[in-house]
Amino acid sequence: DVATGSHLENALTPVKAANTFNLLTEEKTQESGIKSVPEISLKRTANSNPVLRENYQRYPKTENRLRRGFIGIKADTDENRQNIINFLKEKGLEFVLSEAQEDRPVKVVVRDLPTDIEITEITQNLEEKGCKMGRVSQMKNFKEKKPLPLYLIDVKKHGNYTNIYNEKQICYYKVKVVPYRQRKKAAICFNGSGFYRSAKNCYVHPIYIKCKGHHATRE
Question: Does any domain span residue 11?
Fold first, then answer.
Protein backbone atom coordinates (compact mmCIF):
# COMPACT_ATOMS: atom_id res chain seq x y z
CA ASP A 1 0.00 0.00 0.00
CA VAL A 2 1.65 3.21 -1.16
CA ALA A 3 -0.08 5.54 1.27
CA THR A 4 0.14 3.49 4.45
CA GLY A 5 3.55 1.86 4.08
CA SER A 6 5.57 5.03 4.47
CA HIS A 7 5.20 8.64 5.47
CA LEU A 8 5.63 10.34 2.14
CA GLU A 9 6.50 13.93 1.35
CA ASN A 10 3.96 13.86 -1.44
CA ALA A 11 1.18 12.65 0.81
CA LEU A 12 -0.23 16.09 1.60
CA THR A 13 -2.76 15.80 -1.20
CA PRO A 14 -6.48 16.42 -0.61
CA VAL A 15 -9.19 13.80 -0.81
CA LYS A 16 -11.98 15.00 -3.06
CA ALA A 17 -14.72 14.04 -0.62
CA ALA A 18 -13.10 16.04 2.18
CA ASN A 19 -12.11 19.05 0.15
CA THR A 20 -14.57 21.57 1.55
CA PHE A 21 -12.74 24.49 -0.06
CA ASN A 22 -13.40 23.16 -3.54
CA LEU A 23 -16.89 22.04 -2.59
CA LEU A 24 -17.67 25.63 -1.69
CA THR A 25 -16.04 27.22 -4.70
CA GLU A 26 -17.11 24.89 -7.50
CA GLU A 27 -20.45 25.19 -9.24
CA LYS A 28 -21.85 22.29 -11.23
CA THR A 29 -23.18 23.08 -14.67
CA GLN A 30 -26.93 22.76 -15.14
CA GLU A 31 -26.61 21.22 -18.56
CA SER A 32 -24.96 17.85 -19.02
CA GLY A 33 -21.89 17.87 -21.24
CA ILE A 34 -21.20 21.59 -20.90
CA LYS A 35 -17.95 22.51 -19.21
CA SER A 36 -18.40 24.68 -16.13
CA VAL A 37 -16.32 27.80 -15.59
CA PRO A 38 -14.36 27.43 -12.32
CA GLU A 39 -14.68 30.13 -9.69
CA ILE A 40 -12.08 32.64 -8.58
CA SER A 41 -11.99 32.97 -4.79
CA LEU A 42 -11.04 36.55 -3.96
CA LYS A 43 -9.84 37.18 -0.41
CA ARG A 44 -12.29 39.62 1.14
CA THR A 45 -10.97 42.95 2.43
CA ALA A 46 -12.45 46.31 3.43
CA ASN A 47 -11.94 47.50 -0.16
CA SER A 48 -13.57 44.54 -1.88
CA ASN A 49 -16.79 46.29 -2.91
CA PRO A 50 -15.16 48.88 -5.22
CA VAL A 51 -13.28 46.03 -6.90
CA LEU A 52 -16.48 44.04 -7.37
CA ARG A 53 -18.23 47.11 -8.75
CA GLU A 54 -15.49 47.78 -11.31
CA ASN A 55 -15.37 44.14 -12.30
CA TYR A 56 -19.17 43.99 -12.66
CA GLN A 57 -19.14 47.04 -14.92
CA ARG A 58 -16.73 45.22 -17.21
CA TYR A 59 -18.41 41.81 -17.01
CA PRO A 60 -22.07 42.26 -15.97
CA LYS A 61 -22.85 38.53 -16.16
CA THR A 62 -20.42 37.81 -13.33
CA GLU A 63 -21.87 36.29 -10.13
CA ASN A 64 -20.34 36.96 -6.69
CA ARG A 65 -20.97 34.85 -3.58
CA LEU A 66 -19.56 35.08 -0.07
CA ARG A 67 -17.42 32.03 0.80
CA ARG A 68 -16.04 32.05 4.38
CA GLY A 69 -13.77 35.06 4.14
CA PHE A 70 -13.52 34.82 0.37
CA ILE A 71 -15.74 36.02 -2.46
CA GLY A 72 -16.50 33.42 -5.11
CA ILE A 73 -16.37 35.18 -8.48
CA LYS A 74 -17.94 33.15 -11.27
CA ALA A 75 -17.51 34.38 -14.83
CA ASP A 76 -19.80 33.38 -17.67
CA THR A 77 -16.99 32.33 -20.05
CA ASP A 78 -13.42 31.06 -19.81
CA GLU A 79 -12.23 34.17 -21.66
CA ASN A 80 -13.87 36.52 -19.18
CA ARG A 81 -12.51 34.43 -16.31
CA GLN A 82 -8.97 34.92 -17.59
CA ASN A 83 -9.61 38.64 -18.03
CA ILE A 84 -10.82 38.86 -14.43
CA ILE A 85 -7.72 37.00 -13.23
CA ASN A 86 -5.53 39.51 -15.06
CA PHE A 87 -7.57 42.37 -13.56
CA LEU A 88 -7.07 41.05 -10.01
CA LYS A 89 -3.35 40.60 -10.62
CA GLU A 90 -3.07 44.20 -11.81
CA LYS A 91 -4.76 45.30 -8.60
CA GLY A 92 -2.32 43.24 -6.53
CA LEU A 93 -5.17 41.36 -4.83
CA GLU A 94 -5.06 37.96 -3.16
CA PHE A 95 -7.10 35.12 -4.64
CA VAL A 96 -7.24 31.37 -5.17
CA LEU A 97 -8.26 29.57 -8.36
CA SER A 98 -10.52 26.53 -8.54
CA GLU A 99 -10.14 23.87 -11.20
CA ALA A 100 -12.88 22.27 -13.27
CA GLN A 101 -13.19 18.55 -12.62
CA GLU A 102 -12.36 17.78 -16.25
CA ASP A 103 -9.15 19.81 -16.00
CA ARG A 104 -7.78 17.92 -13.01
CA PRO A 105 -5.13 15.36 -13.93
CA VAL A 106 -5.31 11.68 -13.07
CA LYS A 107 -2.78 10.84 -10.37
CA VAL A 108 -1.01 7.50 -10.65
CA VAL A 109 1.97 5.86 -8.98
CA VAL A 110 4.58 4.03 -11.04
CA ARG A 111 6.29 1.29 -9.06
CA ASP A 112 9.65 -0.44 -9.50
CA LEU A 113 11.65 2.17 -11.39
CA PRO A 114 15.24 2.82 -10.19
CA THR A 115 15.58 5.47 -7.50
CA ASP A 116 18.25 7.29 -9.53
CA ILE A 117 16.42 7.53 -12.85
CA GLU A 118 15.99 11.02 -14.27
CA ILE A 119 12.49 12.51 -14.17
CA THR A 120 12.97 13.79 -17.71
CA GLU A 121 13.48 10.22 -18.94
CA ILE A 122 10.16 9.11 -17.47
CA THR A 123 8.36 12.12 -18.91
CA GLN A 124 9.85 11.69 -22.37
CA ASN A 125 9.14 7.96 -22.49
CA LEU A 126 5.47 8.37 -21.55
CA GLU A 127 4.98 11.29 -23.92
CA GLU A 128 6.35 9.14 -26.75
CA LYS A 129 3.60 6.65 -25.88
CA GLY A 130 0.93 9.33 -26.26
CA CYS A 131 0.46 10.49 -22.67
CA LYS A 132 0.00 14.19 -21.95
CA MET A 133 2.15 14.68 -18.90
CA GLY A 134 1.80 17.00 -15.96
CA ARG A 135 3.94 16.93 -12.86
CA VAL A 136 6.25 13.97 -12.17
CA SER A 137 7.88 13.61 -8.75
CA GLN A 138 9.71 10.92 -6.85
CA MET A 139 8.18 9.80 -3.59
CA LYS A 140 10.29 9.65 -0.44
CA ASN A 141 10.23 8.10 2.98
CA PHE A 142 9.57 11.20 5.05
CA LYS A 143 10.99 9.77 8.28
CA GLU A 144 14.22 8.42 6.82
CA LYS A 145 14.45 11.02 4.05
CA LYS A 146 15.27 8.36 1.50
CA PRO A 147 14.01 8.17 -2.09
CA LEU A 148 11.65 5.32 -2.94
CA PRO A 149 11.25 3.41 -6.23
CA LEU A 150 7.87 5.11 -6.56
CA TYR A 151 6.97 8.01 -8.82
CA LEU A 152 3.84 10.13 -8.53
CA ILE A 153 2.65 11.19 -11.97
CA ASP A 154 -0.07 13.58 -13.12
CA VAL A 155 -1.57 12.47 -16.43
CA LYS A 156 -3.73 15.02 -18.21
CA LYS A 157 -7.19 13.95 -19.33
CA HIS A 158 -6.46 13.89 -23.02
CA GLY A 159 -7.38 11.17 -25.48
CA ASN A 160 -7.20 7.65 -24.06
CA TYR A 161 -5.53 8.80 -20.85
CA THR A 162 -6.74 5.74 -18.92
CA ASN A 163 -4.33 3.64 -20.98
CA ILE A 164 -1.66 4.71 -18.50
CA TYR A 165 -2.86 1.86 -16.26
CA ASN A 166 -2.02 -0.63 -19.02
CA GLU A 167 1.63 0.36 -19.21
CA LYS A 168 3.84 -2.59 -18.26
CA GLN A 169 7.20 -1.12 -19.26
CA ILE A 170 8.65 2.35 -18.81
CA CYS A 171 12.23 3.29 -19.71
CA TYR A 172 12.92 -0.41 -20.44
CA TYR A 173 11.96 -1.49 -16.90
CA LYS A 174 9.02 -3.68 -16.00
CA VAL A 175 6.70 -1.56 -13.86
CA LYS A 176 3.29 -1.52 -12.27
CA VAL A 177 1.02 1.53 -12.57
CA VAL A 178 -1.59 1.94 -9.83
CA PRO A 179 -4.00 4.72 -8.79
CA TYR A 180 -2.62 7.14 -6.22
CA ARG A 181 -4.30 6.43 -2.90
CA GLN A 182 -4.70 9.78 -1.26
CA ARG A 183 -4.40 10.12 2.49
CA LYS A 184 -7.47 11.28 4.36
CA LYS A 185 -5.82 14.47 5.46
CA ALA A 186 -6.30 18.08 4.42
CA ALA A 187 -3.73 19.39 1.97
CA ILE A 188 -1.79 22.49 2.97
CA CYS A 189 -0.82 25.07 0.39
CA PHE A 190 2.94 25.67 0.48
CA ASN A 191 2.43 29.26 -0.62
CA GLY A 192 -0.33 30.84 1.47
CA SER A 193 -0.48 28.04 4.08
CA GLY A 194 -4.21 27.60 3.53
CA PHE A 195 -6.00 24.25 3.53
CA TYR A 196 -7.62 22.40 0.62
CA ARG A 197 -5.76 24.17 -2.16
CA SER A 198 -2.51 23.85 -4.07
CA ALA A 199 0.32 26.35 -4.44
CA LYS A 200 -0.02 26.46 -8.23
CA ASN A 201 -3.52 27.96 -7.91
CA CYS A 202 -2.79 30.20 -4.92
CA TYR A 203 -2.18 33.92 -5.34
CA VAL A 204 -2.39 34.71 -1.64
CA HIS A 205 0.64 36.43 -0.10
CA PRO A 206 3.13 33.78 1.11
CA ILE A 207 3.03 32.86 4.80
CA TYR A 208 5.39 30.33 6.38
CA ILE A 209 3.46 27.79 8.47
CA LYS A 210 5.85 27.71 11.45
CA CYS A 211 7.11 31.28 11.89
CA LYS A 212 4.29 33.13 10.08
CA GLY A 213 6.94 34.98 8.09
CA HIS A 214 6.14 36.32 4.63
CA HIS A 215 7.79 33.60 2.58
CA ALA A 216 6.58 30.30 1.16
CA THR A 217 6.70 27.20 3.37
CA ARG A 218 8.91 25.39 0.85
CA GLU A 219 11.65 28.02 1.23
Answer: no
